[in-house]
Amino acid sequence: MVLAGGVGARFGGPKAWALLPDGRTFLDACVVALREAGAFPLVATLPPGSTDPEIKDLAALPLPEEGLDMFASVKIGLRRLLAVEGWTRVAILPVDHPLVASAAISAIAASDESAAIPSFRGKHGHPVVVDRFVAEAIADGSLPGPTLREVLGEIGTIDVPVDDPGTIANCNTPDALQRALRNAR
To answer: Which end of the chain is more exposed for a tag (fewer CB within 10 A), N or C?
Structure first.
């Protein structure tokens, strides 16, 4: 699941449509990484009023209103995913982490715990991976938050060491994207 419903005020517009140097949007890069890691189904929360970006295998889910916080976006996306049977874990990837490699996502998803978070050189990053029963508890309010960080603190997570600077590359401004691209080299 890609969280891409924000207006991207610090970036100058919605980060879902921000471009990487290779011409791909942040959203497309996130979806490709998730797909290559074996994630299915794929859902992305998008800014209200967004049109379907027509990305292969992606269910686009425009948020119902502006101003929702990230945890509300998480719950909306999880409710959509929970309508689909057959999956056991979900990777929750903010769109401002478009440099995450599929190998890192696969490593995080392979953990045995109900919730896992990547660690690159001692720093936590994204995506977070949770089991379906955790997703259900978030969606139905049994784990009320008010943030995903608080939910993860309550249930406990395992750190999964990864060799991927993209997991900690929060590209929430154009300058942050440029720094992350330099650090990835």
So the answer is: C
